Known about the structure:
A hairpin with a 5-residue loop joins strand 2 (102-106) and strand 3. Helix content is 50%, strand content 14%. The protein has 2 domains: 2-73; 84-144, no CATH class. Helix 1 runs antiparallel to helix 3. By secondary structure, the chain is an alpha+beta fold. It has 5 helices and 4 strands. The structure holds zinc ion. Zinc ion (ZN) binds at residues 76, 78-79, 81, 107, 109, 111. The site of zinc ion has 7 residues, from loops.
Amino acid sequence: MKYWGYLLAKLLGGLGVLAGLRAIVRWLLPEPQEYVTYNNLNPIGHDLTHTIVYFVYFLVCAGVIALIFSDQKYRCRTCARKLRMPVLRGSWDSMLLLGRPHIEYICPYGHGTLKVPELQITGKEPIAWAEHQDIWKELELLHTGKR
Ligand SMILES: [Zn+2]
């Protein structure tokens, strides 16, 4: 729940920033009066300056949304913190012996592990989130030797 709430908050924040940027662009580059008064046309697509500025604005919007989603991909599904400690698992050289190469990220609070495949044989492989039951209890049992 925290994960999706954080994503929603980031999207709303990003949309707020983009709306503010659009207001600044409209303030700096008002619509030419000949388009509004005589033709009742939208200057985007008819005026080169407006078309270029709004194309760049569109690219900035797409970049901000892509940044938000790429940041969210590497967050813990439980606490929404950034995942840490990337570890390369598997091997390119001995794939049959050690498994397919992938990178594992772990939550610093032990909530789970994200497995990101490096090898895409049959199209885009989905990333896999594995939630830990109680990693600290398991470590305590290993340390005390009760396991
Ligand atoms: Zn976590």
